[in-house]
């Protein structure tokens, strides 16, 4: 259909907010969901993964429908992770325009008292993780009797992480007249049974299968033994002009080991896993979003909710446990019309798992040969030359002219320049395994 945001029935205030954010036209999930939520009174089950625009699909109708003059909590959005709770609340806040809506992210790992004070002052939309939401319900600091909307975001991940019992307890504390909106990348029987129990009538909205894994992602794999994975990772990063990506590992220990090795070799990298304190996690994510680091090594759980549109790469340092996780991982690149690359390191005894992922996820993952050492050296030389050429063109070097002339006079141009390159770039031309 390719409707515009205006044709979906959104207000002028919201249209201005969308224009300010640079949103040109609705995604498929937005086009299908927004009219149902604006015009009807049925519940919605939406099949859509991270990166399809699902936050705006439910967030925009909430902005339109919620009464800013009331102090009651009118919408509750449940997310599986703290990071996703923060990102969803920030996204909705950025879309509210001139409307005076108060949106509060609520999650563990933070003192509960400031959250209680904010809830007492009045909040329209609460976005939170099941555990902390239950804490507030039991303390009496969060009353859900007057909510009009309950959103379950990434319901399959809440199921995988063991939160479904908490979700059902939260549902029992809400009024019967609310609308329930459930979004999930996959719809296993457990999720559909949950929908049947708590939704009187619902519309199923599904993004076409092929857009779930997106044709903008080039998917390749390298056959690599466990002992050679780190060398392979360095080669993959080094041959790219502007690598900006997520590296997925199976365990927290693997994440720490890989991140520490990268940092030791001079890469701008950091680690993200469940043992990291919340404030530190937020600092790491902020640095990654601002590209102060360009490599983030993470576990699946820690990476939930990372929503960045311009990642160039997703690296499966360890293959995921199932096809759904593979789809979740690679869906973090190739967004917003930009191409991305998903690379998997596969050991010889993992071919059966790879074949299963390809079959169930219906994806084409082609085998490639690792970049050669000569390719890596040439790429590094090219980067060094480009950096130097940029400085020469900018003429931002005048304070070093005198010392450079002294070095040339004493040692000759070739030796002086080579020594300076070694001093500045250190061991960047040294290759692992060379």
Automatic annotation (TrEMBL):
User: What SMART domains does UniProt report for this protein, alphabetically?
Assistant: DEXDc, HELICc
Q: Which residues form the Helicase ATP-binding domain?
A: 35-205
User: What's this protein's name?
Assistant: RNA helicase
For this protein, the record's InterPro entries field holds: DEAD/DEAH_box_helicase_dom, DEAD/DEAH_RhlB, DEAD_box_RNA_helicases, Helicase_ATP-bd, Helicase_C-like, P-loop_NTPase, RNA-helicase_DEAD-box_CS, RNA_helicase_DEAD_Q_motif
Motif window: Q motif? 3-31
Supply the source organism for this entry: Methanotorris igneus (strain DSM 5666 / JCM 11834 / Kol 5)
Note the Gene3D superfamilies from the entry. P-loop containing nucleotide triphosphate hydrolases
Residue intervals of the DEAD-box RNA helicase Q domain: 3-31
PANTHER family noted in UniProt: ATP-DEPENDENT RNA HELICASE DEAD, DEAD-BOX ATP-DEPENDENT RNA HELICASE 47, MITOCHONDRIAL
């Amino acid at each position: 259909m390719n409707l515009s945001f205006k044709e979906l029935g959104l207000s002028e205030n919201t249209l201005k907010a969308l224009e300010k954010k640079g949103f040109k036209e609705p995604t498929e999930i937005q086009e299908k969901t927004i009219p149902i939520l604006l015009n009807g009174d049925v519940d919605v089950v939406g099949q859509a993964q991270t990166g399809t625009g699902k936050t705006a699909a439910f967030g925009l109708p909430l902005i339109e429908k919620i009464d800013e003059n009331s102090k009651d909590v009118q919408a509750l959005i449940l997310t599986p992770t703290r990071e996703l709770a923060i990102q969803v609340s920030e996204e909705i806040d950025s879309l509210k325009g001139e409307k005076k809506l108060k949106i509060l992210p609520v999650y563990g790992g933070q003192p509960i008292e400031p959250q209680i004070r904010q809830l007492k002052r009045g909040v329209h939309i609460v976005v939170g993780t099941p555990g902390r939401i239950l804490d507030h319900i039991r303390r009496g600091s969060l009353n859900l009797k007057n909510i009009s909307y309950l959103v379950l975001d990434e319901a399959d991940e809440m199921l995988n992480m063991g939160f479904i019992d908490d979700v059902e307890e939260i549902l029992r504390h809400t009024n019967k007249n609310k609308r329930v909106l459930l979004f999930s990348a996959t719809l296993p029987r457990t999720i559909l049974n949950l929908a049947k129990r708590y939704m009187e009538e619902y519309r199923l909205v599904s993004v076409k299968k092929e857009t779930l894994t997106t044709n903008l992602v080039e998917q390749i794999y390298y056959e690599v033994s466990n002992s050679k994975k780190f060398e392979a990772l360095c080669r993959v990063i080094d041959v790219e002009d502007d690598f900006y990506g997520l590296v997925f590992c199976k365990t927290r220990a693997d994440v720490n080991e890989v991140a520490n090795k990268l940092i030791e070799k001079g890469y701008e990298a950091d680690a993200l896993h469940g043992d990291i304190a919340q404030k530190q996690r937020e600092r790491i994510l902020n640095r990654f979003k601002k590209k102060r680091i360009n490599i983030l090594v993470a576990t699946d759980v820690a990476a939930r909710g990372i929503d960045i549109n311009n990642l160039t790469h997703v690296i499966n340092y360890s293959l995921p446990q199932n096809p759904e996780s593979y789809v979740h991982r690679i869906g973090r690149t190739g967004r917003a019309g930009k191409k991305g690359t998903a690379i998997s390191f596969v050991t010889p005894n993992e071919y059966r798992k790879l074949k299963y992922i390809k079959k169930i996820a219906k994806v084409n993952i082609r085998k490639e040969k690792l970049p050669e050492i000569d390719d890596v050296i040439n790429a590094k030389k090219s980067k060094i030359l480009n950096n130097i050429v940029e400085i020469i063109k900018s003429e931002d070097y005048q304070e070093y002219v005198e010392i450079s002339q002294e070095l040339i006079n004493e040692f000759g141009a070739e030796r002086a320049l080579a020594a300076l390159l070694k001093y500045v770039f250190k061991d960047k031309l040294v290759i692992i395994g060379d």
